[in-house]
Amino acid sequence: MKIHSFYFFLFIVIAGFSQQKYPQNYFQNPLDIPLYLSGTFGELRTNHFHSGLDLKTQQREGLNVFTSAEGFVSRIKVSHWGYGKALYITHPNGYTTVYAHLKKFSPKIETYLKQKQYQKESFEIQLYPKSDELQIAKGEIVAFSGSTGGFVGPHLHFEIRDGKSNPINPLLFGIKIKDDKRPSINTLVAYPLDSLSQVNTSNIPLKIGFRTQKEGVLLSDKITAFGKIGFGVYTYDRLTGAANKNGIYSLEMNVNGSRTYYHDVETFSFAETKHLNLLIDYDRYIALGEKIQRCFVVEENPLSLYQNVKNKGELDIKDNNSYNVEIIAKDFQGNQKKMLVPIQGKKDSILIRSEEKITDYKITAKEFNKFTKQGVTIAFPKNTFYKDLYLDFNVEDGKASIHSNQVLLKNSYTLTFDVDQYTASEKKQLFIANYSSKGYPNYVDTKKKDKTFYTKTKSLGKFKLLKDSIPPKLRLHNIKNKQWVTNFKRLVLKVSDDLSGLKSYRGEVDGEWILLEYSPKHGTLTYDFADIKFNTAEHKLKVIVEDNVGNTKTLESTFYRKK
Predict the structure, then answer these.
(1) Structure letter (DSSP) for residue 205
(2) For 192-210, what is the HEC assignment?
(3) pLDDT tens digits, residue range 183-223?
(4) CATH fold group of domain 3-173
(5) pTM here?
(6) Helix or strand (DSSP H, E) at 316
């Protein structure tokens, strides 16, 4: 048997064992269309692992969403962001399925939800129905697919969670997705792991070239190295019938025929998902947008994805010794892409070495650190940073530049601006903004005291106090003032704010609160006329919107509707 055939066979056997841990054919597909994925389980997202499958909905909204098994609705969450409108159904076997980014719920769930929203006078809500309130049969239509929750496109996000609310790869339960394509490996990076190590006479991470051999196997350029080194790859998977670059299922590294590193995405906990940035080369991701998955485990990485890792995946290269490294990326179906990396141990003089910039602001990671400059104070609790470093800290024209956002933080720190020089009226319109990589200011949660404003953040970069004196914009969109709207199903308003952003909104008809649904993506507030039974023809509409510093805009209008 050829070696690569043996590894493929071994992967199938291991995958079979994993599937035996989970009930097969218990959960049916939540859609009645052919399933194609725009996102896989465990996929590397910004600051988190993807906790489910993103099922394509033919670029449409409103498709029937079926419950995968009998159970009861245990949670309903409605939010402007995140999952948007989401439904949680708990099943007799202890698992819970999650359906997210929904357009709306089935009539019985929608009725239950709206009653609670009107009681609370809030669109955003989280409910935990009792087990006998909303019982669901297997295959029952429970919702309709959508694109709610921030700036997502139409799709259904589907999860299966265990009794501890840990997400598990739904494909392990027998849900079938066709995939006969191999993953791709597009980048190989070699990492010297201490000050004495080198790769091709370099002590800094080095991109290594490669070429394609027979049967699609990749062969890297030969490497000379010495000391402790590691490898990382940029890899992704494309599934049959879909062009999306999705996540792989497992990544493995063998050295001279012996497994040294392995991780897969069978399951994880939400508590550990924030540590994704320790799996990838975070510096390179921020600089180039490329998520290199390390085939070694860095210090303080608590992820549970790893299995049988030797020496943390590090290679200790000796002078004059030869090494054959094999890196294998696999998808759930066992399709694999293999890369071979030949190494010759050679102790050369290190010609390329990074020089640490010395500044006046020395961070000792295990201690509390605090610095003040020109009315700006930064305070880092102990263990905010993963390692000691010299911090760049500068303030110019009121803008604080705090090192680089390429540095990963373990915990939040406090950024404080002195505002004693501003009048009371000016303070009302001030907020702390964080600048994006493209130079756009974004509101950050600003806590206000009499003489200081502060925020807690896990981001380094550029910050400044900005003034927002302009109220949000608000106008009628699909009707006009004093218009008959008897044949209209809904009322739509356009809303926007150019700086600090929208904080809250309230709508009333004839003095009574109405349910307005805010869509950040479309900049709309929508009211369903069916929510209220009208007893008169003339009605007074009043909508008030407020931005994050308290500027308000009020719209008042009259509409007519037959009883």
Answers:
(1) -
(2) ECCCCCEECCECCCEEECE
(3) 999 999 999 999 999 999 999 999 999 999 988 999 999 99
(4) Glucose Permease (Domain IIA) (2.70.70)
(5) 0.93
(6) strand 315-317
